[in-house]
Amino acid sequence: MRYCTAVTLVGSGNFANLPRSLVEATQAVVSQARRSQDAQIEDLSRHIDVSRSAPCVIQIAQG
């Protein structure tokens, strides 16, 4: 449940591009988060000496 303040009635047809704008904004945020996550993984991999490491499994949760 959400509580709203300063609610304003808008006319029909106003903000017709809002759904597309929200989708595009969401895609941009997700894309940036994935690039950031990839960069973090790449940075961590530089610090791992594979020749001396025991086999392991790394699980990365995606949200």
Account of the protein in words:
With 63 residues, the chain is an all-alpha fold. The protein has one helix at 18-45. The chain is elongated, with a radius of gyration of 22 Å.
**What's the N-to-C terminus distance?**
22 Å
Number of helices: 1
Radius of gyration: 22 Å
Which residue ranges are poorly predicted, with pLDDT under 50 across at least 5 consecutive positions?
none
The description of the largest β-sheet is:
none
Element pattern in H and E: H
The residue fraction in helices comes out at: 40-55%
Structure summary, number of beta strands: 0
Spell out the key features of this protein.
63 residues; mainly alpha; 1 helix; 44% helix
Quick structural overview:
By secondary structure, this protein is an all-alpha fold. The protein is built from 1 helix and no strands. The mean pLDDT is 77.
Please render the helix and strand layout as text:
Layout: H1 18-45
